[in-house]
Amino acid sequence: MRQFRNMIYPYVAWLAVMVVVPMLMILLYAFTTEGNDVTTFRFTLDNFARFVSDAVFLDVLKRSLLIAVFTTLVCVLLGYPIAYTIATGPERSSFFWIMLVTLPTWINMLVRTYAWVGILQDDGLINSALGLIGIGPFNMMHTTFAVVLGMVYNFIPFMILQIHSSLAKMDKSLLEAASDLGANRIQSFLHVTLPLSLPGVLSGITLVFLPAVSSFFIPKLLGGGQYVLIGNVIETQFLTSGDWNFGSAISLIMALIIMVSMYITRKVDTDPESGGRR
User: Fold this and answer.
1) Measured between alpha carbons, how far is 181 from 184 in angstroms, rounded to an integer?
2) By the 8 A CB rule, do 198 and 240 touch?
3) Which helix (H) or strand (E) holds 210?
4) Torsion of CA 62, 65, 69, 72, to 10 degrees
């Protein structure tokens, strides 16, 4: 047991240095004034008041939430049929399809997003193909469509894997029992398969919504400088404006929104085994 505890110490030290200390620094900067001296800290709520009182920042936050919700919805609508098809298909081919879904994640997300720049630009792959049949070109870059497309492409594997995991672990005898009781395929899906797969759906929603609402380089590359989300505002405050206090305050506001979202997701999650809420 002592040897096991000794193995934990390096992880605890890494967690403290790489997670706890940065979070404490963000807390400190968020509640203090710009240009603080360690001996003359002045605590204030001005950074938060500045954000909630500025219509521009609130509009950016609203746009970020809408984009994240829409991206998550598209991932659910596209990911569920794919996961269902893989889970209900032959077991020998499921490994191949899962590998095909996860293959893009082996490549750096920034590289994958840059690839979409070449595909969507005015002289890119799509417009070049459409030009061969006399259609276009269409302006797809620096639009909501491009941003949502980039987010869905990058985050949909997380949705598919979570839903597939729930469907793959489902007891198939329940479907046989439903069929014996006279349920057709649609009824069996609505009353057996869908409820049992909801934990995977909710886990996928969490894994898609959280990075989507705070993403900054996808809207920066595909949306251009004219398309700003809350992640871009935080990046600007830290790297361009040098206003770490305001940037930290926005980060804390986003952290609070994310924690509330996770709490709501957990509350609506159901446990198939207990038949009630967790």
Assistant:
1) 9
2) no
3) helix 194-214
4) 150
For residue 154, which of 203, 230, 207 has the smallest C-alpha distance? Answer: 207
Extract the runs of DSSP E, i.e. beta strands, from the chain: 270-271, 276-277
Beta-strand relationship, 276-277 and 270-271: antiparallel
Cα gap 110→33, rounded to integer Å: 34
55-272, what's its fold? MetI-like fold (1.10.3720)
Residues 6+ apart with CB under 8 A from 258: 210, 213, 214
Entry pTM: 0.82
Tokens representing 220?
């920066």
- In this structure, what are the phi and psi dihedrals at residue 226, rounded to the nearest 5 degrees? -85, -10
| Residue 164 scores a pLDDT above 90 | yes
DSSP state of 104: G
Tell me the average pLDDT across 180-202.
87
Terminal C-alpha separation, the chain: 32
99-107 long-range contacts (CB < 8 A, ≥24 apart) are 101/157, 101/160, 101/161, 102/157, 102/161, 104/153, 104/157, 105/157
Which of 251, 262, 261, 239 has its CA nearest to residue 48? 251
C-alpha of 111 from chain center: 18
Residue 143 sits at φ, ψ, to 5 deg, of: -130, 165
Q: Could you tell me how far CA 88 lies from the centroid of its own chain?
A: 26
Q: Residue 226 in contact with residue 142, Cβ under 8 Å?
A: yes
Amino acid at 194: L
Pair of tokens at residue 181: 């009781």
* pLDDT tens, residue by residue, 213-259: 988 889 888 887 667 888 888 888 888 888 888 989 999 999 888 88
